[in-house]
Design a protein that fits this description.
- It is a single chain.
- By secondary structure, this protein is an alpha+beta fold.
- The chain folds into two domains: about 290 residues, Periplasmic binding protein-like II (D-Maltodextrin-Binding Protein, domain 2); about 230 residues, Roll (Dipeptide-binding Protein, domain 3).
- Helix content is about 25%, strand content about 20%.
- The chain contains 14 helices and 23 strands.
- Strand 6 and strand 7 form a beta hairpin.
- Helix 7 packs antiparallel against helix 9 and helix 13 runs antiparallel to helix 14.
- The longest helix has 17 residues.
Length: about 575
């Protein structure tokens, strides 16, 4: 499992942005579906979503999970799978911020862990967190600044950490008292709200400090700072949660939540239709869309969301022939009708337009969402760019230069029918423009663990999945030249596309360091423009999310959350 900045992996179903980059796999009449901004409503904070004075009483709820976590040591590199967060992390680990809709946009909102918005100062940047004095761990121990300090130290200085971004910029955390914590930064970090939030949360120092954290957590843990406790992880079968009786906020309604692992898409839908699981969150595979459009008896209206934290793209190795040439990358983009590709994949659920930025849709307010809009199918433009770069078509109609043909090896995760269809459509369109595309798919572990980091690819198809609301995946960690895997960074850099554009480095570093929202937005838009001009990679689709919930589930609200998933308010669910 590979960690990329601010993202987790949606399963290759069994995997891989986290890759949060996330590589996703599994497979996917006229049932009505809702599309667009299906999301959590504009509530205040998590503690006000329900008023449960006592835990339980809501019955046993069995849910379907497409992927089993690799481990539950959430800050370790093994914990990249999104399903680990959706099934367990978000329900058991306290976090500083929640993610909610505010005035039509996704925003950070202080969680019940905080007593209010943190105070921020500059020169140097400091963030003062005021903790809710009622917040306690499941053993009754108060959650304090010592927990923030321990979490920061483990991530910033530990080994085999999933992603230390931002934490390494903290120079220290001072406890003014048990519930007043001041984090001082060695340099400005604009994404400070993402820290101690969705990706990791906060760890209990009184239980872990001085001990082997990984050994105590990787196979499951016995503590909680959320509404649920982990009762059992039966590997290969299920995860079971029960209410945390000492949770200081609204108590969890379910008596028990059982997550059944069902990695096969057909079996996943069969279990839902049979009532064996009461909610599923399938990836938008071909057969999943067919199942939805055929109609699902006993299900609530499907929740289909295109404004996601996901971005699926054609990722180009800027240092590998023939994509080491900007004109060739541009010409390849002009050879494709991306809208036709997206419509072929997701038209059945109302998603038929390509995304036009290398930033995910949920951060579109900061980004230039039309940066790549000029790249539409234009074979005359292909000819102009290729001949201008010294290429000519050979007898087979394939571009050739210096005795080498424009042959492009195209990789993605093996066994993913939707991605295989994408490859076939791209292959056909590119052939008409003079590019020879060959397909060589790989096991997820090989692709993400070895080949992409090593630069052993020309063109790859995968998705990045955000775990917070910071600009991305167009970020310094993904596109700054200093993050090209090398000896200098221990070959751990995440710039797998080998993008090396000094002007882009400048803008991306501004995005990370500028706390001025206006300046940050301007830098994000400038970066989008530079990425499009240099065609560093080609955005394709938002990888829409699908939430399917049984009519048997009752809750104040059933909706999808762009970060926390359709299970964001699981503590409020009950079964009749």
């Amino acid at each position: 499992m590979i960690a990329l900045k601010r993202a987790r992996v949606l399963g290759a179903l069994a995997l891989s942005f986290g890759l949060v980059a996330a590589a996703c796999s599994s497979d996917g009449g006229d049932a009505e579906v809702s599309s667009g901004d299906t999301a959590a409503s504009e509530t205040t904070d998590g503690a006000e979503r329900a008023d449960n004075a006592t835990a339980g009483g809501g019955g046993t709820i069995t849910l379907g999970a497409e992927q089993e976590p690799d481990c539950m040591d959430w800050i370790a590199s093994c914990a990249g799978a999104s399903w680990g967060a959706w099934t367990t992390l978000y329900h058991t680990m306290p976090r500083s911020f929640d993610f909610e809709m505010v005035d039509g946009d996704w925003a950070y909102v202080p969680s019940p862990l905080l007593a209010g918005d943190p105070e921020v100062t500059e020169d140097p940047q400091t963030v003062t967190y005021k903790l809710n004095p009622e917040a306690v761990w499941s053993d009754g121990t108060q959650i304090t600044c010592a927990d923030f300090e321990y979490t920061w130290d483990q991530i910033a200085t530990g080994e085999d950490i999933y992603d230390p971004t931002g934490y390494v910029d903290i120079s220290g955390i001072e406890a003014k008292d048990d519930t007043t914590c001041v984090a001082t930064f060695s340099k400005p970090y604009a994404g400070w709200r993402s820290l101690f939030t969705g990706l990791y949360g906060v760890l209990p120092s009184h239980l872990l400090d001085g001990k082997d954290r990984s050994a105590l957590m990787k196979d499951g843990y016995e503590f909680s700072g959320g509404p649920f406790m982990l009762k059992e992880w039966k590997k290969g079968d299920s995860i079971t949660l029960v209410p945390n009786e000492n949770y200081w906020g609204s108590k969890a309604k379910p008596d028990e939540v059982v997550w059944k692992f069902v990695p096969d898409t057909s079996a996943y839908f069969a279990a839902f239709k049979a009532g064996e699981v009461l909610a599923i969150y399938p990836q938008p595979q071909i057969d999943a869309i067919e199942e939805i459009n055929a109609g699902l008896s006993g299900a609530r209206e499907p929740l289909v969301t295109a404004r996601t934290g996901n971005l699926e793209a054609l990722w180009m190795n800027n240092n590998a022939f023939p994509f080491d040439s900007v004109p060739v990358r541009q010409a390849f983009a002009y050879s494709l009708d991306r809208d036709a590709v997206v419509k072929r994949l997701f038209g059945g659920i109302g998603v038929d337009k390509a995304v036009q930025s290398l930033n995910a849709p949920i951060v579109g307010k900061l980004a230039d969402q039309e940066a790549f809009a000029g790249y539409t199918k234009d074979l005359d433009k292909v000819d102009e760019l290729m001949t201008g770069d010294g290429w000519a078509k050979n007898a087979n109609g394939v571009w050739e230069k210096g005795g080498k043909t424009a042959t492009i090896e195209f990789k993605t995760t093996a066994g993913n029918k939707r991605r295989e269809l994408t490859q076939q459509v791209v292959q056909e369109q590119a052939k008409a423009a003079g590019f020879e595309v060959t397909i060589n798919n790989q096991k997820a572990g090989d692709l993400f663990g070895q080949q992409l980091p090593a630069g052993d690819f020309q063109l790859a198809l995968y998705a990045q999945v955000l775990t917070n609301l910071e600009p991305g995946p167009s970020s310094c960690s993904i596109f700054c030249s200093k993050n090209i895997p090398s000896d200098a960074n221990g070959n751990a850099g995440q710039n797998w596309t080998r993008t090396d554009i000094p002007e882009l480095d400048t803008q991306l570093e501004l995005i990370d360091t500028s706390v001025d929202v206006t300046k940050r937005g301007a830098a994000t838009k400038a970066a989008d423009k530079l990425e499009a001009e240099n065609m560093v990679s080609l955005p394709l689709d938002p990888l829409p999310t699908i939430g399917l919930v049984s009519e048997k589930i009752q809750a104040p609200e059933i909706s999808d959350n762009a970060i926390l998933s359709v299970f964001w308010n699981l503590a409020d669910w009950s079964v009749n």
